[in-house]
Write a structure and sequence with these properties.
Layout lengths: L1 E10 L3 H10 L17 E2 L8 E4 L2 E9 L3 E8 L3 E10 L6 E11 L3 H27 L11 H10 L18
Helix pairs in contact: 2-3
Length: 176
C-alpha cells in the first residue's frame, strides 16, 4: 500500500527562524518536537546525514539535510515501513513560510494493518502537535488539533495505561 501523508502550517515567521527549528530536531535543545506529550525524537549525534535515531517505535536515519531548510529521514523500523519522512520550509517570504511534514512510503506485511489502524492516526495528531509546538516556539498563537477518542485510547494502550501530559498549547482539550 502506498502512503503519501502531508501536513502543512503557515507560519508568520522568517524562513531562517523556522529552519532553526528543523535544525534543532532530535537534539537536547529541540524546540519543535512536543516531547512532553509524545516520545521524544532522539538522534545519536547532531543533525547530519548518517545520524540515526527515532521516536517511540519509529526508527530512521538522516539521508538528506540542508541546514535551515529541510531534513529527510529514511525509515528503518518498524518492519514493513519502506520510505521516508521529513520536514521542509516552503513558500518563503521574509515574513512568513510554510512548514511541511511529508511521509512517502510503502506499507508491506504487518504494516498494511499497523499503519491505518494504529500508527497513521497517532502520526496525524503527533505531526499537528509538532506544528503547534513550532508555532509556540516562534512566539505565535498555536493552532492545536483536538485528539479524537480513538487517539486518546491508542496513546493510553501504547503507554501501558499511563497518561502522558498534554503539550503546553493544549489548553485542557487533550486531558480527558
Amino acid at each position: 500500500m502506498k502512503v503519501v501523508n502531508v501536513h502543512q502550517r503557515l507560519l508568520h515567521a522568517s524562513p531562517e527562524r523556522v529552519g532553526a527549528l528543523i535544525d534543532s530536531l532530535g537534539s537536547p535543545a529541540d524546540a519543535m518536537w512536543p516531547g512532553r506529550a509524545w516520545p521524544r525524537m532522539k538522534l545519536d549525534r547532531p543533525m547530519a546525514v548518517g545520524a540515526s535515531g527515532g521516536h517511540g517505535p519509529i526508527r530512521y536515519v538522516v539521508e538528506a539535510y540542508t541546514p535551515g531548510q529541510s531534513v529527510r529521514f529514511r525509515l528503518t523500523a518498524p518492519r514493513g515501513f519502506e520510505g521516508w519522512h521529513g520536514f521542509e520550509v516552503l513558500d518563503a517570504t521574509p515574513a512568513h513560510c510554510v512548514l511541511e511534514h511529508r511521509i512517502e512510503m510503502r506499507a508491506r506485511g504487518p504494516a498494511l494493518l499497523y499503519w491505518p489502524l494504529v500508527i497513521g492516526p497517532l502520526h496525524d495528531v503527533c505531526v499537528e502537535d509538532v506544528l503547534s509546538q513550532a508555532q509556540l516556539s516562534l512566539g505565535l498563537e498555536p493552532r492545536p488539533v483536538p485528539w479524537t477518542t480513538r487517539v486518546r485510547l491508542l496513546r493510553w494502550l501504547a503507554s501501558g495505561g499511563r497518561r502522558r501530559p498534554a503539550p503546553p498549547f493544549a489548553r485542557g482539550q487533550h486531558a480527558r
